[in-house]
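Objective 1.3, modelling of assemblies. Example input:
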Amino acid sequence: MSPASDNPAIDTIIDRLKDLPGALLPILHEIQHTVGYVPAESVPSIATALSLSRAEVHGVISFYHHFHSEPMGQHTVQICRAEACQAVGARELEQHATRKLSTELGCTTADGTVSLEPVYCLGNCACGPSVQIGDEVHARVTPERFDTLISGLEKKQ
Amino acid sequence: MITVYVPRDTTACALGADAVAEAIKAEAAKRNLALNLVRNGSRGLFWLETLVEVATDKGRVAYGPVNAADVSALFDAGFLEGKDGHLALGLTEEIPYLKNQQRINFARAGIIDPLSVDDYTAHGGYAGLTRALAMQPQAIVDEVKESGLRGRGGAAFPAGIKWQTVHDTPPQQKYIVCNADEGDSGTFADRLLMEADPLQLIEGMTIAGLAVGATQGYIYLRSEYPKAHAVLQAALANAYAAGYLGDNIAGSGKHFDLEVRLGAGAYICGEETSLLDSLEGKRGMVRAKPPLPAIVGLFGQPTVINNVLTLASVSSIFEKGAAHYKSLGVGRSTGTLPMQLAGNIKRGGIVELAFGSTLRSLLEDFGDGTLSGKAIKAVQVGGPLGAYLPESALDISLDYESFAAASAMLGHGGVVVFDDSADMLEQARFAMEFCVVESCGKCTPCRVGSTRGVEVIDKIRAGEQRDDNLILLEDLCETMEFGSLCAMGGLTPFPVRSAIKHFPEDFGG
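Predicted structure (tokens):
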């Protein structure tokens, strides 16, 4: 028997996917997709279901940049830091973004609106600098365009 | 009814293609015009996105770059009849950027609806599989060997030899794994292929399964590609529904299942053994080789692991024959390589050419120089682990051997252009910094060497014992190159050393 995680949605996900070969990443993806992050309290139930130690599950979560153990802001804004975007102003955009949002890369704004994350390539390298908000990639993002995108998010509040 | 095409790939959408498609629908409704709007993949001419096409008697006519605000004017100018005028580019196939390419992998890109099996088969798709189904497994492997196809992921290992090893292992559960973890900055060929012509990859993997006796395949796709994920999932479902996957492929009684698995934002998982660990549900740690994945691969079983373009190429090799494929290219670099023009470039996009063209021709004839209009200072070929080449080295031939001879790497064909405002010390520092962030941590030269590398470069920048620290940095590069377990630590010295060698003035020299 798996110990329940106090979250029926998480238990359902684990139960549905645990028999896949190499089930851990699909389970983590599904939990993050549903809950928004991978809560620490889900680790023991995942570990039991897959016959792993909690340390192993935690090790996997912390290895991958994509998985988060803490709740994120309402919107995740990823700025590409890789070379093709650097060549068209990504370093300046990154500085502008951290100033504009008064936060650092890898952190969430004080009001919880935006999590600003670094990303290394979105595959939009012919038309950088690239920014991804949620699942939407934006091309040729100048500082002015960045401000427009961010004010669009704030209006959605 | 008139058919209008609006691309749906990541870059077109990042430039507003969805809004353009909506505006075209709305404008047509307003004018009481019936039209058939197809969301095709992209032609890969990203500097012209959103590239809208209209089917006419003479062929498809292109308009671009189109913004939603242009749509009303396009209707006024008669674009539905293919008339000249606002943003008109003439016949798509006659645009020199496209016309002067030799497209194999991207022959169908932007032409077909990526999800339609009927479109795919109407344009030569599944002809290769049909041929392969009538062949013995060894004959399939021989055809791949004969084609000279080499791995497109970067290492350029002959695909047929890998396949032979898996073929020769005793019958047991074997796997075909597609490395779709395209993490190199400046590369997007895998992404576009999966978004514009995913069935080509699916067909290639199915042929690989027949060749080596594998009944299960996995596409390991990076999580940064949500659109490619959606397209692949839909294309897989359509291939199953059409009977091209499953336990009775095209009525042959042969069996092949295929599934997409998502990575989770770790660059190192593009390294094949680390990818296999990740697929197994572990941290993406690099494995020591031997044993080779061909013998002990996924879940400890014999596994063919190839890049997206490698596996996709297989479908055209079987459609047109190994001899045709081999007739393109130079020396041991056979076939075509889709080059990707990125960074500070006026005309960025996919340029698929037979091996043997020059980097200068690519940058000048296709790329038309920098986006900023300034002089080219440096070009990084082959991703973040590739060397920085100076302007004076641009006449290099685009083939694996010429790049190896120049201590550079053609890799996956990504070309990132920097203008004369680039600071090459910063670029060298970034190479080390990237290695700090993305190292799997298993071996010391990579894990610790990269951190020390950032520190030493900072000291050089500060002018602190500059000459001594440059010697130290060279020592460190040597340790990383020869002491690291995989290409991550082993190749990070390439961008660093090439920056120092070709741009000493940026290092205070």
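The mean pLDDT of chain A is 94.
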